[in-house]
Amino acid sequence: MKHNPWWNLVAVFLLISSGYAVKVGDSAPDFQAMDSNGQVHKLSQYHGKFVVLEWHNNGYPYTQKHYESGNMQHLQKEWTSKGVVWLTVISSTPAEQGYVTAQQENDYMSKMKALPTAALLDPKGDVGRLYSAKTTPHMFVVNPAGVLIYDGAIDSKATTEQADISHCEKLRIASFGGINGWQASQHAHEPPLWMFCQIPH
């Protein structure tokens, strides 16, 4: 079989690309995105604060589980009251399920009484690709020094049942010492649990 040299270039490219995937312990990549109220946010503007990035798609049952139960809103309220910046990120493209306009997102947040600092619209998936966000909800935490300290699931139960929330290991990004301690632990990287709620790449 004749060897195609282009495959060597592809293999090298993929190897290099995988090497640049952000990992816990790395500096969190800066980004710029507009929120549902037309305000532009940059991660770097929040240097000195903890930042939660919550990838979101209101059409997926696992996201619905945490919003319809009020669990996500409770966490948003609790953490932002302690000075944490909570950014909900929507990376669905216009042609895909999960895409919302700014008005649709504002209507949804009002209906659900959601309390993030802002909801960022990422219709080209730029921010999603930057963080290799894979599912919804997929959670990331950046510390005040700008270092990624958590990448993973919201809890330990991969079900759509609201009743399971009270029986699972609570929001795994709180498992490294709680929101008061913010100490990294063995839970700093927990694989996202819902692998079929894909964010477009």
Task: For the structure shown, list the relevant keywords.
201 residues; disordered N terminus; 6 helices; eight-stranded mixed β-sheet; Glutaredoxin; alpha/beta
Give a short synopsis of this structure.
This protein is α/β, with parallel strands linked by helices.
Write a structural description.
By secondary structure, this protein is an alpha/beta fold. It has a domain at 52-190: 3-Layer(aba) Sandwich (Glutaredoxin), CATH 3.40.30. 27% of the residues lie in helices and 17% in strands. The protein has helices at residues 5-19, 61-68, 71-80, 102-112, 126-131, 178-181, and strands spanning 32-35, 40-42, 51-55, 85-90, 118-121, 138-142, 148-152, 189-190. Strands 2-1-5-4-3-6-7-8 form an eight-stranded mixed sheet, covered by helices on one side. A hairpin with a 4-residue loop joins strand 1 and strand 2 (40-42). The two termini are 32 Å apart. Residues 1-19, 172-187 and 189-201 have low confidence and may be disordered.
Q: What's the helix and strand layout?
A:
Layout: H1 5-19, E1 32-35, E2 40-42, E3 51-55, H2 61-68, H3 71-80, E4 85-90, H4 102-112, E5 118-121, H5 126-131, E6 138-142, E7 148-152, H6 178-181, E8 189-190
Parallel strand pairs: 3-4, 4-5, 7-8
Antiparallel strand pairs: 1-2, 1-5, 3-6, 6-7
